[in-house]
Design goal:
- This protein has one domain.
- The chain is built from two helices and eight strands; from the N terminus they run H-H-E-E-E-E-E-E-E-E.
- The chain has an eight-stranded antiparallel beta sheet, with no helix packed on it.
């Protein structure tokens, strides 16, 4: 994280401050079941970050195997951003592979929110197809070879579930900012702790390449 910030400061020196991301042509969340702007829909989901990209996360973390009461397995997690064809927009890619444990590990439930927060308030999905809506990978098995997904965040917060007319509070441009991401295994295993949290640095166009 520190390396990213140092490189970003060096590469962005002299850039105009205060620039804002474009609004985007439209939000396809309701039209095609995806929260991404049109220019983000053609991104391939690669096996590793492009050369020259500095991952937001690259670590082996402990995780519970199915129905386990302990974190008796491990998963390698790599998370990175990719710039979209729509200037000023980006998406977050997540790749997991099982790196330890005698039994299978389930893809966890995912929650996310803008900023560095203690408890993320938006349900999220790990998507293989960008237009697949609310059908993510949670509950699937983490493979040894690994799988890459695109992070899709529900625009409506969990705290607004009882609101008869809720307003969205997570927008396409929010993928560019600092994001708290939580992996939660509580539905698949009783291990304590049953979650892992990452705080992802903001989008840097000079580091997070197309």
């Amino acid at each position: 994280m520190l390396i990213r910030r140092i490189l970003a400061a060096a590469l962005m020196a002299g850039a105009v401050a205060g620039s804002q991301a474009q609004t985007g042509e439209l939000n396809l969340l309701t039209d095609l079941g995806t929260p991404f702007p049109p220019g983000c829909l053609s991104i391939d989901l690669p096996e590793q970050p492009p050369e020259g990209t500095i991952p937001l996360v690259d670590t082996n973390m402990t995780a519970p195997t199915i129905n386990s009461n302990s974190r008796d397995g491990s998963v390698r997690v790599r998370i990175w951003r990719v710039a979209c064809d729509d200037e000023g927009f980006s998406v977050i890619l997540v790749r997991m592979s099982q790196s330890g444990g005698a039994n299978p590990i389930v893809v966890p439930q995912v929650f996310a929110d803008t900023g560095d927060v203690e408890i993320p308030d938006h349900k999220a999905q790990l998507l293989r197809l960008q237009g697949s809506g609310d059908v993510g990978a949670s509950g699937d098995i983490v493979t040894e070879n690994g799988t890459t997904w695109m992070l899709g965040v529900d625009p409506f917060s969990l705290s607004s579930v009882d609101d008869p007319d809720p307003e969205p509070s997570f927008f396409p441009a929010d993928y560019n900012g600092t994001i708290t991401l939580e992996f939660f295994w509580g539905a698949y295993a009783s291990a304590v702790p049953n979650f892992t949290t990452f705080v992802l640095d903001q989008f840097e166009p000079t580091l997070d390449l197309p």
